[in-house]
Hints:
Radius of gyration: 17 Å
Number of strands: 20
Distance between the termini: 18 Å
Number of helices: 2
Structural class: mainly beta
Low-confidence stretches: 1-15
Mean pLDDT: 93
Strand order of the largest sheet: 1-20-19-18
Shape: globular
Amino acid sequence: MLTALGLFAALVAANRPEGATAPVVKRIAAEEARQGVAADRGHVYAVDNNRIGKYRKSDGKRVAQWTGDPALFPHLNSCAMAGGELVCAASNYPAVPQASSAEFFDPKTMRHTRSHAFGIAEGSLTVLDWRGGFWWAVFAQYDGKGGEPGKDNRYTQLVKLDAQFRPLARWTFPAEVLKRMAPRSASGASWSRDGMLAVSGHDLPEIYLLSLPEAGTALRLERIVPVATEGQAIDWDPQGEGLMWSISRADRSLVLSDIR
């Protein structure tokens, strides 16, 4: 059954011209909206380098905030809900060699509960999502700042890992998507319920909808959706089909759009 918000979004989507910017359904002011956003059924979480603000969807009020030691948490990249926990991809960006970790939080208390250290891996961890009994990680590379010497954003990979974070498979990103994201890389990604991977870059107001290939190693680009926000980490809203949360750094807000 559609919620009132989902029904409104569906009506808007049905009347949107092809190629038009995805309509904004809701905005919430959030001072921590610098790196990304995560969502559960009742709240959205604004992500900064070492801060996370918890905001109530219904009225936009901040109800809790976590702040970490910058020496331990120099750069949170994105967060997502997984198994009742808020899990965040963290790195030492823009330092090299690139080192990354997964940081876990209790979303009820906003207490940091545990950490998994990837150490010096195959890139900078920008995304960690859970789907189908597996972790899905994006290890990003960059052209220049924050990138490993001798590599550019073409070395960015989607990595499938088991529950103990052991790598099982890897995919590269489509050349068109990498060209549009350059000199940066994938800042956010989130799996939809129907198996579509939504990916965002660092600067451009667009979402890339990708799928796993039938064969080979390159993800398949299905569609590019123009949006009203300028990149960074994203998350599907669990309460409505096609509803996507993103952030606007310019006005420090969390933005819900219908990207169907």
